[in-house]
Amino acid sequence: METVATLGRVRFVNDSKATNADAARQALSSYPRSFWILGGQAKTGGIESLEDLFGRVAKAYVIGEAAPAFAQTLKGKATVAESGTLDAAVAQAYADASATGQDAIVLLSPAAASFDQYADFEARGEAFRAAVQRLAHAARGPHEAPFRSKGASRMTAATPNSSPTATHAFARSDRSAIGVWWWTVDRWMLASSPC
Q1: What backbone phi and psi angles, to 5 degrees, belong to 23?
Q2: What is the dihedral of CA 183, 188, 191, 195, to 10 degrees?
Q3: pTM for the full predicted model
Q4: Of 16, 101, 121, 187, which residue is most buried, by most CB within 10 angstroms?
């Protein structure tokens, strides 16, 4: 599992490698409550074996080919949104998790193969990261650049008068080259300004 970003009080966790129910069990068991993104190309048995963990699901966002079957399995046991695509699921999960006003986890642990929409689980994980990055960019605004503080292990995008809930953290592996570019442009602009 990989923490992709934290936006406000919402942490995004990528477990795209969980391509079956047994693998998803580990991720669901790791958090007392999560906004769970699942689906893709269902494997034999679907998600029925995870029923004992459905109580930990704040809301489920089903995607891909398995969406109708997974929604049916979850019916009456967890609140379900048939999101269809990963982008839609990420946006919906973030909105719902943010609305709680509490620390929350958005968990991509699909319990299904990726082949209905992606080349492999890694491509699905990259798509998840990209969707979260787009959310972060929209939240921070077009004129606020990410920077990396000295000794920091992750990139951060700070807003003017930022508070802990307005700071967005990204795993170093995500867009680090772009982050360094923005940091360089930002420092160059400060150095060349007439003030």
Answers
A1: -70, -40
A2: -90
A3: 0.70
A4: 16
- The helix (run of H) or strand (run of E) holding residue 182 is helix 176-192
Write the pLDDT tens digit of every residue in 112-129. Answer: 877 777 678 888 888 999
Q: Which of 24, 112, 33 is nearest to 68 (CA)?
A: 112
pLDDT at 124: 85
Residue 112: its pLDDT value, please?
84
Q: Which amino acid is at 184?
A: T
CA separation for the pair 127, 93 (Å, rounded): 15
Rg (CA), the chain: 18
Q: Which helix (H) or strand (E) holds 117?
A: none
Give the residue-averaged pLDDT of 93-109. 94
pLDDT at 138: 81
Return d(Cα 96, Cα 10) in angstroms, integer.
10
In the chain, what percentage of residues exceed pLDDT 70? Answer: 71
Q: What residues contact residue 76 under an 8 Å CB cut-off, 6+ apart? A: none
- Of 3.90.190.20, 3.90.25.10, 3.40.190.10, 3.40.50.150, the CATH number of 2-140 is 3.90.190.20
Element at 67 (helix H, strand E): helix 67-74
Residues of the chain with CATH 3.90.190.20: 2-140
